[in-house]
Every structure is written in structure tokens, then in C-alpha cells.
Amino acid sequence: RRQRLAARPRGVSAPPTYARAPRLQTDRLSLRPPRAQAAGAYRDVYADGAASAFYGGPLPEHRAWMRLAADIGHWSLRGFGVFALVHRGETVGGCGLHHPQGWPSHELTWWLTPGARGAGLAREASEAVLDWARDALGWTAVATHMKDDDLQARRLAERLGFALHRRETFPDGVARDVLRRPLGAVGGASA
Fold first, then answer.
1. In three state form, how does the secondary structure of 41-99 look?
2. Is the dihedral of CA 135, 74, 59, 179 positive or negative?
3. Contacts of 121 (CB under 8 A, 6+ apart)
4. So what's the pLDDT on residue 52?
5. 61, 43 in Cβ contact below 8 A?
6. Most CB within 10 Å of its CB: which of 13, 36, 84, 153?
């Protein structure tokens, strides 16, 4: 005999899932939820000590794969996450919104494979994600967390309109600057 599952109460939406994650498009990039095919890009960036220094790297391939799995799972747990960046049919990085358990806030994060750097792709992807956070999620501001020596990322954050909001020690024991960017209202009006 089959058991019947109780119907979801009215007014209660289904929990967010990876399957319902959006796909975004810019002039040069497709932003989509990461999938197994992105494993090579994760491997490449986390194997590169310079590229992954601010993300705990370099990491062996199996730990890079675990980062990919965590990014996939984040979509189901939080309803938002990191997008895989696809340029000319190849995954070249990641960009999105991340909020690890116990951390003080969500943050905009991005990374690119070594061969994709210097072409403005991180900025293009970040602008698309910020627009999505405002338009689809209804967020009025986004933060990003900066280690003191991550000067290249800080410069990009400042070009994107982020400014110092506060200094905080994170659960991993590292003090970081929390930069914040207000998001204009839907339709382009200032917040």
C-alpha cells in the first residue's frame, strides 16, 4: 500500500533548489549553476597557488571537486549561490553570492581561471549578479569580504561601487574588511 504525502500548506513556497537556479546572460558570458562539467575549471584555479591564495589554495584535485560540490549544494540550502561563468563554450570561472554557515553576511565572490584574467570578465559577471540580487532577490545591498592583502579584488570591488562598511573577525579567525554596495531600486533609481 502506497502512502500519500501531505500536501504543502497554502502560502508556503517550495524550498529553493539547484534545479530552479536561474541562468543569466551578458554580452560575453553565460552564468549558470555549476555542474560536473565545471570540475576542470575548479581544478585549474585551485591548483594555481596565486589564483587560489585567497580561497584556501592551492588545493589537490579532490578538494577542488569538493568546492564544486559545495557550490552546487549552496543553491539548495540558501536559494542563491555561485554561477559558473561560461565564455565561448568553456567554463572560465565562478561568480555569485555566497553565505557560509556562521559567517556574518552573504557576499559577492568571484574567481577566474588563469587564462581568463585581465579581460574584464569578473567585472561583467559581478555586475550581472548584482543586478540579479536586486531584481530577483529584492536585496537592497550586497557585501564582499576582503583579506588585507587581496589588493586586486579590492580594486575590482571599489570599481563596482563597494566601500568599507566595517571590520570583522570571521569564524576562521581572520580579520577582514566588509565592503558594502547599496543596490539601486528596480528600474535604476538610487537606493
1. HHHHHHHCHHHHHHHCCCCCHHHHHHHHHHHHHHHHHHCCCEEEEEECCEEEEEEEEEC
2. positive
3. 28, 29, 85, 87, 92, 93, 112
4. 78
5. yes
6. 84
Residue closest to 181 by CA, chosen among 117, 110, 131: 131
Host H or E run for residue 26: none
Cα(73)–Cα(77) distance, integer angstroms:
6
CB-based contact 176:167 (threshold 8 Å): yes
Residues forming a β-bridge with 95: 83, 110
pLDDT at 4 over 90: no
Select the more confidently predicted residue: 52 or 85: 85
Find, among 56, 51, 162, 26, the residue nearest to 116 by Cα. 51
Closest to 64 (Cα-Cα) out of 83, 38, 90: 38
| Bridge partners, residue 87, by sequence | 90
SS3 152: helix
SS3 content of the chain, % helix, strand, coil (to 5): 35, 25, 40
